[in-house]
Amino acid sequence: MHLQGSLFDQTDQLRLGPLDGIRRTHLGSGAWIDVLPGWLTGSDALFEQLAAEVPWRAERRQMYDHVVAVPRLLAHYRAGEPLPHPVLTEARDALSAHYADELGEPFTTAGLCYYRDGRDSVAWHGDRIGRGAREDTMVAILSVGTPRDLLLRPAGGGETVRRPLGHGDLIVMGGSCQRTWEHCVPKSNRAVGPRISVQFRPHNVN
Ligand SMILES: O=C(O)CCC(=O)C(=O)O
Predict the structure, then answer these.
(1) What is the pLDDT of residues 130-185, one digit of tens each?
(2) C-alpha to C-alpha distance for 60 and 65, rounded to whole angstroms
(3) Residue 78 and residue 93: Cα distance in Å, rounded?
(4) Alpha-carbon distance 5 to 12, whole Å?
(5) How far is the CA of 183 from the centre of ligand 1 (A)?
(6) Which of ligand 1's atoms lies nearest the C-alpha of 150?
């Protein structure tokens, strides 16, 4: 499945906009999301470059008595490791500066997920390996390629919030979001094109 470019993002020139336009929604229980549609312009060109050049890993996981393929490709960049494109370094640093007072520490790591088509997905979870299990924190996600729904729901059950994310959109999950809410990218029956998400996290949040 090829990426169908956005009609609104027909430039090859990569540019991050200002973060002042970001809008916060309080979800309850101390969780919030900040959303900025189209933060990165020229994002289709970035999608193509990341899809072609990142050393993607296909992982396998034990599921009951089977080993199954994880339905998406992955790459991970630890603190201090060069990111696969300079605009991602710029994005991480801009996010660290914007949230410095509230977060009290920089974003240091980057996880990349490549959803090749609607069969790729990630199940409901919170990022609770490490400090996200005990402390308020933030996870910032820049999405490029075809929009896919990111769903959020209270960990104890409740109404689901849906945010379609692609083509340079930014979402930041903050406060208690990783502990008190869960998120997922569900499979889609429609013929959806590919999407890459780049998740920036502070030290020891996974
Ligand atoms: O692709 C996304 O936007 C979400 C990724 C995610 O939740 C994860 O990798 O933990």
Answers:
(1) 998 999 999 999 999 999 999 999 998 999 999 999 999 999 999 999 999 999 99
(2) 13
(3) 15
(4) 11
(5) 8
(6) 3
pLDDT, tens digit, for every residue of 87-134? Answer: 999 999 999 999 999 999 999 999 999 999 999 999 999 999 999 899
Predicted structure pTM score: 0.95
Task: Please give all residues whose beta carbon lies within 6 A of any atom in ligand 1, as ranges.
Answer: 111, 113, 122, 127, 141, 150, 183, 185, 197, 199
Question: Could you tell me the distance, in angstroms and rounded to a whole number, from the CA of residue 31 to the centre of ligand 1?
Answer: 17
Which of 40, 43, 42, 36 minimizes the C-alpha distance to 20? 36
Q: Where are the alpha helices (DSSP H) in 13-122?
A: 43-53, 86-98, 100-103
Ligand 1 centre from 122 Cα, in Å?
7
What phi-psi label fits residue 129: left (phi over 0), alpha (psi between -120 and 50 degrees) or beta?
A: beta
10 Å CB burial of residue 111 (0-12, 13-18, 19+) is: middle
Tokens 């312009």 locate to 41
Q: Kindly tell me if the per-residue pLDDT of 9 is higher than 90.
A: no
Please report, as a single letter, which amino acid is at residue 167. Answer: H
Q: Ligand 1 atom 9: the closest Cα is on which residue?
A: 113
Q: How far is the CA of 102 from the centre of ligand 1 (A)?
A: 22
Amino acid at site 113? C
